[in-house]
Amino acid sequence: MMEALLELHGHSRRVGLVEWHPTTNNILFSAGYDYKVLIWNLDVGEPVKMIDCHSDVILCMSFNTDGSLLTTTCKDKKLRVIEPRSGRVLQEANCKNHRVNRVVFLGNMKRLLTTGVSRWNTRQIALWDQEDLSMPLIEEEIDGLSGLLFPFYDADTHMLYLAGKGDGNIRYYEISTEKPYLSYLMEFRSPAPQKGLGVMPKHGLDVSACEVFRFYKLVTLKGLIEPISMIVPRRSDSYQEDIYPMTPGTEPALTPDEWLGGINRDPVLMSLKEGYKKSPKMVFKAPIKEKKSVVVNGIDLLENVPPRTENELLRMFFRQQDEIRRLKEELAQKDIRIRQLQLELKNLRNSPKNC
């Protein structure tokens, strides 16, 4: 990766942001310090549209699911929802009490989430109705630190992740369409501060390990990138359909000409089940040795070694509890199966053919 495949020239000042259109092939958006957003058709290597409605530097861009709407935050303290092909501003909020920095569309919920700073200089998040930006639905203060808050949203699990620049932690929330809208769950903690974060696309996750999100954390002091996996703790070896619904895949839904002609289309979905591979269990084969035994009062002391410490006792206790729970579940399933067989047998006896 030493040479560029294509160089794009169009901005009069340096470029600060680039975003791919979520459903269209080879359509790229770029925002520069000339306060303009250029829409590039990479099939021809030229800008085909320009959005010129900002009066200051654009801080963030985000698309809705089908790419028919673009939302931006700007240094002029305004939040905008824009129709990207025409550049027409559909909604605009003047955020004086909540100075917005970053914004993200929340899937198909018709909601926006912004991160910013309150009038008391505390870090804050706000939830907005995309069709009415007159005032936020809710505002919630996070803390008094000064680093930027980066929002990441997973539309498949309705999870919001908040990571602050210079922080070592990542908070996670669940988003819903009903009040209270935002429910704090917990947070990942690390002593190493983060300078920035990238995200692995869904089709690159380890489905067999129940991994639902993966960050790539740029560590400030060490000059390295650290992967952070968000994993749902489940013991089942089967594919977990409830946490892996159909998700946007790699195939584009539109060509550049179709999108520029006014067509909107939802992303082409794919199942992650094809990428599921049951993890092979490593089996250690021990050398065969003659079994020894030390029997006292009918108990083999080598097979039933008593725990030496309190920790060993607790581990043994929890293992036994897990085994009892597993056996109870097995027994309940067998009881259900027995009842089903009894009903089937009864139906067979009562059927007209046996009369």
Automatic annotation (TrEMBL):
Gene3D superfamilies registered for this protein in UniProt: YVTN repeat-like/Quinoprotein amine dehydrogenase
Family, similarity comment: Belongs to the WD repeat coronin family.
Keywords, alphabetical: Coiled coil, Repeat, WD repeat
Claim: Magnesium is one of the keywords in the record: no
Name of the featured protein: Coronin
InterPro entries linked to this entry: Coronin, WD40/YVTN_repeat-like_dom_sf, WD40_repeat_CS, WD40_repeat_dom_sf, WD40_rpt
Residue ranges of WD repeats: 8-50, 51-92
Coiled-coil portions: 324-351
PROSITE patterns xrefs: WD_REPEATS_1, WD_REPEATS_2, WD_REPEATS_REGION
GO molecular function, one term: actin filament binding
